[in-house]
Write a structure and sequence with these properties.
alpha+beta, 11-stranded antiparallel beta sheet, two-stranded antiparallel ribbon
């Protein structure tokens, strides 16, 4: 893999990730851009003990542009996008409308392919491996930045999720705090170690691998619908050998990941039938905080879920979920696992 660092016209960083070591990236961004300014700040909620990012400048971000004005497509003589090159494999750049910036963290955009009409599930295994390498590189680099407490790689896919750019892409947030869900997992993992002498994540994985909710099982990864799934179709993907974050994955796990993950995404697109629109989803990498008590108890894993509960029907976060954080699932985890096994792509 070759990584090439360059800069956009307003000073933001742009990185190209290419499979071939001899790839040359020399395209220049000639747009007349003003330097990025943001009003991002982090405020602490004393009642919940949680931090909230306030980013009012994002109200003016790009919203559903036409395909010929997509800011994530390669540049052409008629259209200068965020990526100056006429083509690319994987590209990462600083978000022009970040939720977190400066001392409050950093937000990056990850473009998985230059093909506007593709999706992650359409990638080759080689390209998916390159995306994994980019996620890993950014996790390592962002984790080393002063003030960063946690690195979160994720993809939002589909208008139902709230995606405003149709081009296949994900994001990376470098948080200046440990996110609430991670903090809760850490507390439970530390308590589990104190009470049993064992690792909580390893015990969960062992229980699920022996049960009826496994969707895919490889030599180095296991995908399962969790016992207490919150979403209609929710799958957790764990490496069988515990790792704190993406940088700690071994070579065997890296080699197997593309095949299993692509199969999982392709099954998601078959849940509701091949005649239905692509399944909207969120794919979220859960990584250990950069440092702190309990970090050694955390286990890297990916959580993939959809807000679609049936053909033409969405799972809305209503009064119990939004108001109280108490989830109610209309689909049993066991039936969800059955369906995801039924729709194997091969």
């Amino acid at each position: 893999m070759k990584k090439t660092l360059t800069h956009l016209a307003d000073g933001r960083e742009l990185l190209y990730f290419d499979a071939a070591d001899d790839t040359v990236r020399e395209a220049v961004d000639h747009r007349p851009l003003d330097p990025v300014t943001s009003a991002s700040e982090v405020r602490h909620d004393p009642l919940l003990g949680e931090d909230v990012a306030i980013a009012s400048h994002r109200q003016g971000r790009i919203y559903h542009p036409p395909a010929d004005s997509c800011p994530l497509c390669p540049s052409t003589p008629a259209w200068q996008s965020e990526i100056p090159a006429a083509d690319y494999e994987v590209a990462v750049f600083e978000n022009r409308f970040p939720s977190l910036s400066g001392a409050n963290g950093r937000c990056e955009v990850v473009c998985f392919t230059s093909d506007h009409k593709a999706s992650f599930a359409d990638l080759t295994e080689e390209r998916a491996a390159l995306v994994l390498a980019a996620w890993t590189d950014r996790t390592a680099e962002l984790s080393a930045r002063p003030g960063v407490r946690q690195v979160y790689c994720f993809e939002n896919r589909g208008a139902e999720i709230g995606v405003t750019l149709a081009h296949p892409h994900g994001q990376i947030y470098a948080f200046p705090f440990t996110t609430p869900r991670t903090a809760a997992m850490l507390r439970n993992a530390v308590a589990h170690r104190a009470g049993t002498g064992r690792n909580l994540f390893e015990d969960v994985l062992e229980r699920e691998r022996a049960g009826e909710r496994v969707v895919l099982a490889g030599e180095h990864w296991t995908a399962f619908v969790p016992y207490a799934a919150r979403w209609p179709y929710e799958v957790h993907l764990y490496p069988n050998r515990r790792a704190a974050d993406l940088t700690a994955l071994d070579g065997a796990a890296r080699a197997e990941f593309p095949r299993l993950y692509l199969e999982l995404l392709r099954r998601f697109d078959r849940i509701f039938g091949t005649d239905q629109p692509p399944t909207p989803y969120i794919a979220a990498w859960h990584q250990a905080p950069v440092a702190g008590a309990g970090r050694e108890e955390f286990a890297l894993h990916l959580e993939l879920f959809t807000v679609r509960r049936a053909s033409g029907k969405l799972k809305y976060l209503a009064g119990t979920e939004s108001g109280m954080g108490a989830f109610m699932n209309d689909v049993s985890p066991e039936s969800a696992a059955d369906r995801l096994r039924e729709v194997a792509s091969s």
